[in-house]
Amino acid sequence: MDINWIKIAGFVLTPVIAFVVGVTYGGLVRNITARIQNRFGPPVWQNFLDITKLYSKSTAIHHGWMQRLGPAFALTASVTSLFFIPVLRDSEMFSLLSFDGDLIFLLYMMVFGSLGMALGVGQTGNPNSAIGVSRGLSQMVGYEIPFVLALVAIMVQYQTTNLNEILAAQSQFTDWIIFQNPFAFAAGMLALLGMMGYAPFDVVTAPAELASGPPSEFGGKYLAVMMTSRSIFAFAKLVLFTDLFLGGADNFITLVIKTFAIYMFPVLTGIVNPRFRTEHSIQFFWKWPTVLGILAIIIVVW
Amino acid sequence: MTPNINEKDKLRIREIVQNFARKHSLWVLAYGTGCGAIEIPPTMTSRYDAERFGITGSATPRQADVLLITGYLSTKTLKRVIRTYEQMQAPKYVIGFGSCTINGGMYWDSYNTINALDRYIPVDVYINGCMPRPEAVIEGFIKLQNLIAEGKANGAEKYMENLEWYRENQKKIIHNWQMPDFNW
Q1: Would the CB atoms of A41 and B54 count as touching at under 8 Å?
Q2: Which of A58, A134, B53, B61 counts the most CB atoms within 10 A of its CB?
Q3: How many Cα atoms within 13 Å fall on the side-chain side of residue A176?
Q4: Where residue B106 falls among pLDDT bands split at 50, 70, 90?
Q5: How distant is the alpha carbon of residue A187 from its chain centre?
Q6: Could you tell me if A50 lies within 8 Å of chain B, comparing CB atoms?
Q7: What is the Cα–Cα distance from B174 to B170, expressed in whole angstroms?
């Protein structure tokens, strides 16, 4: 049996690229937030320093094995989701595990990290964490509905659940789903607001209210793994949205431009908004984004 | 087996990299029960913008690196400070903020405040003044950064080595010690 070295290189390189890009985006977001608040802000590489510092903490207290496993679950889920998303179009190295039906698989895989975290957090016994987890899972019920509706609209429109085929259908600029099915795009982007967890939908981590919510009892290396996982997962989500709506990318420059454009939507919304209450956040997702999602399906089926 | 020079150098390089990261990423847990806490918001927000130096607030003791004691500590809040300090993950640093943490300041003969913070938890940097301006606070943080880079900010190790002495002092003040002997 031949060993496919290109694929192996892809498996090694993809998480590294996702980590570097995701963490740099995190630093950029802090910088952009600072400029909007009329501050100078930290350097762009600040999040690398934060993660290095957390990894080099000399003590790491834990309350049991589940707390140790929680961040590992989250990291596993992030990296696995990333492997199922074609990062570049028509590239053997960067479309790793795509198969028929990977969109449906991704829907499950993207939830797995949060559930693993919820298990880990449960053992810490911190009331803030427990409230954060219950809020997070409630909000997930909110934004998953418009997201799934948008995905179903695309699946029905192109008669496929394979991301590579959806990418292939968007070869021309005018074939992009943002133009072909703008309602699905709108529903998806509004769902992204909730997925990214920036204000006004930051009910889960709510630093001033819940003491950072689920991770409040995690310090040092556990927090570092969680930050790594969050950076990789943010990149995975952005690449997924680029593949779904903006026709993917042929090279990394296009990819960075497109993912950054998508990322700016939740970030800029977040900077100028206060925080919703949990029930208002769920009400929001069940109102307009859901209506837009249903409209997208109706238009496709019509 | 004694480590040869190469391994020592490797350790030293690792230490330098780690200290560089620690120095530029200080997550502050502000214990703001003293009046000095009023100087923290201007330090953190647009006017003085401490985030330029990588200094940000942290929500819980588990995630924090720096415990900022802003002003006087009453005998009642000392207990909470000790719990908070012990929950932080090493390496951890303490900044005593204002005259009250140095010698009691204007509360030096009060019946319910402590006078020298250094007797109860190890303090790395003192910022004097009543109260210190945000410029002085940032100056204090830069002093702490320099200590970290030189590897001299080892309060956590000092605390572990002299735990009995610290416990003895703490128990002199806290008569109703109704908490576990170790909080970490």
Answers
A1: no
A2: B61
A3: 15
A4: confident
A5: 16
A6: yes
A7: 6
Global ipTM: 0.87
Distance between CA atoms of residues B110 and B115, nearest Å = 9
Domain ranges within chain A, ordered by starting residue? 5-301
DSSP class of residue A217?
G
CB pairs under 8 A between A and B: 90
Residue segments in chain A with a per-residue pLDDT below the cut of 70:
1
To the nearest 10 degrees (0 to 180), the angle between helices A65-83 and A5-36 is 110
Q: SS3 sequence, B129-162?
A: CCCCCHHHHHHHHHHHHHHHHHCCCCHHHHHHHC
A251 touches chain B (CB under 8 A): no
B67 secondary structure, DSSP code: E
**Dihedral sign, CA of B7, B8, B9, B12?**
positive
Q: Which of residues 164-223 of A touch B (CB under 8 A)?
A: 207-208, 211-212, 215-220, 223
**Residue A281: both structure tokens together:** 């956040």
Integer angstrom CA distances of residue A201 from A107, A150, A206, A238, A265? 20, 20, 9, 18, 13
Q: pLDDT tens digits for A134-168? A: 898 888 889 999 999 999 999 998 888 888 888 88
**Residue A292 token pair:** 């837009």
CATH number of B17-173: 3.40.50.12280
Please give the Cα distance from B152 to B138 (Å, whole number). Answer: 19
Burial of A141 (0-12, 13-18, 19+ CB in 10 A): exposed
pLDDT tens digits for range A82-132: 888 888 887 777 777 777 778 888 888 888 888 888 888 888 888 888 888
Name chain A contacts of B40, Cβ cutoff 8 Å: none
| Domain residue ranges in chain B | 17-173
Distance CA A147, CA A103 (A): 12
Is there a contact between B54 and A60 if contact means CB atoms under 8 Å apart?
Answer: no
Encoded tokens for A136: 């997070």
Nearest to B170 by CA among B66, B98, B99, B77: B77
Cβ(B131)–Cβ(B150) below 8 Å:
no
Q: Does A291 touch chain B (CB under 8 A)?
A: no
Of A186, A217, A168, A202, the C-alpha closest to A64 is A217
